[in-house]
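Cross-check.
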Amino acid sequence: MDKNKRLTVWLPVIIAVSIAVGIFVGNHYVSISQGPLRSYTSGNKINAILDIIDEQYVDTVNMTDLVENTIPKIFSELDPHSVYITAEDASAVNEELEGSFSGIGVSFNMQTDTILVISVISGGPAEKAGLMPFDRIITINDSVFSGKKKNQTEIMKTLRGAKDSKVKLGVRRGDSPDLLTFEVTRGDVPVNSVDVAYEAAEGIGYIKVSKFARNTYNEFITAIAQLKQKNCSSFIIDLRGNTGGYMDAAINMINEFMPEGRLIVYTEGKSFPRSDVYANGTGTCKDAPIVVLTDEISASASEIFAGAIQDNDRGLIIGRRTYGKGLVQTQIALNDGSEMRLTIARYYTPSGRCIQKKYEMGHTDDYEQDIYNRYMHGEFDSADSIKMDDSMKYLTAGGRVVYGGGGIMPDIFIPRDTTGVTSYYSNVVNSGVLYLYALEYSDNYREKLSSFNTWEELYDYLCHQPLLSNFVNFASSKGIKRRPTLINISGALIENQLQAYIVRNFFDEAGFYPIFLKDDVTLLRAIKVLQAGESLPTAELIKQANGNLQSQTGPAKRYGRSKERIFEDYITRAIG
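Predicted model, tokenized:
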């Protein structure tokens, strides 16, 4: 009896111990064959996977690099405009829109193997230290930079730095063999977004806005005031090549032209209820005639501006169909200094259209090919090549039909101007020879060229110089074969650009744009519209304008001015 009692008491204990030993042995062999099995029942799955890799992967893994390489892949599965920015790149990405950076305040070009100062920003650190245009920077902080081919990004990183930090420059000036030494204290260098403002025709002010940055509105208001002092009462706002920026800057600019109560734009997203923005009636140009110039590069905030003007029948849009970006991003800073720009909403023009072009999640390559596909389809040359979706018709305040789903279609379409474009012209532009000659000419004759008081005087002087023939010889020495017939066709175009680039080296953008744009067909059409008092759109006016387009511009051609003609000046010189 006692024996049975003892068995009854100990049997459960024996069974429990046996099970525990079995589990221990089983887990031991599993760990040998498969590694430890762990269950992550809480937390983020991605974090769990990274933890497992960090703890159990066969080799040592740099987890920081793994994470940095993985995050962009996550963003690539979203829309084309959501993006991750590394801590290393965040500062450079933001500088363009912040309105200033810390540097020495010069624009420069890498001429052969030497840094050539093209201009010194007025009031900037370099000017205060004594640097002058056409100085050659030989050493930076006692390290030799001359004789080494370096790209502009590398040079900018060296010249820029923390505010109040110092950089030592060894400079060769003119023909002097001696090296001059300057210690420059870095400071805030402004980044302008209103490139130029001038009177394009009697009473008509032209304003070129290259981006919508934090200081754009203040620059814009200043430009408007200056033009009004010159008795300009109507305005051309050039947004060609403007890829956008801060939406608030565009809204503030639009407000200057809108009567009180007009809808400017509204945004809406899954987590962001509809938010409407209306004009407050404080604008200084509410009654001023206005024309807006656009092209296929005009995007985002540029399209907000153009869409508000068009949908309110406030003025005419002239040029080509815009890019088609109707997504709103918010910028979120992360703890390590990196950032993400996440799409949180769509913006809509006053008529209710979203002008975002079609895209598929995770197919950014196809999306980025859209501009090229438009070009191949002939959309830059003919309005008839552009097919709008009838299911996305909207009406302006005055009842005109406009379309959503793919950019702002201009009221008056202007194809690319191909006048003077030949293979010879393309060669000298794409090779950089045209710009290089203008730079060397400016350097060689700087004493004479800097003696003129106004850009108009310098331009008049250059018009009487044999620039074209000398340039052809120069280009030939650089391997560009003479093509007399093609040179004859392209001569006026080449000469115009040479004059514009040379003048800019002494009078900056204020002298560059009036020369560069003197034969611009889109600008000339805008001037004609304003002079005729036809800036307010009517259905008949638009029909007549587009109907007469072919006879005024001639047959469209498959080739055209390369992007370099418009943007080469921004590519070939940088600011440090």
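The two ends are 100 Å apart (CA to CA). The first strand starts at residue 83 and ends at 85. Passed to J.P. for a second look.
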